[in-house]
Design a protein that fits this description.
Length: about 45
């Protein structure tokens, strides 16, 4: 049987994931929500 508490003690986060997170948070990236909001605003103006 797996002892999850013991396994969590050995866990170390991946450096690649941390690097990707910092890159994502440092850049203002337009996502689908932003695009949908912009489309709705444009429709309301018409």
């Amino acid at each position: 049987m797996i002892n999850f508490e013991e396994e969590l003690k050995h866990f170390q986060p991946s450096n690649e994931i941390e690097d990707a997170e910092s890159e994502i948070y440092e850049h203002d990236i337009t996502d689908m929500t932003d695009i949908m909001q912009q489309m709705m605003m444009e429709l309301k103006r018409k």
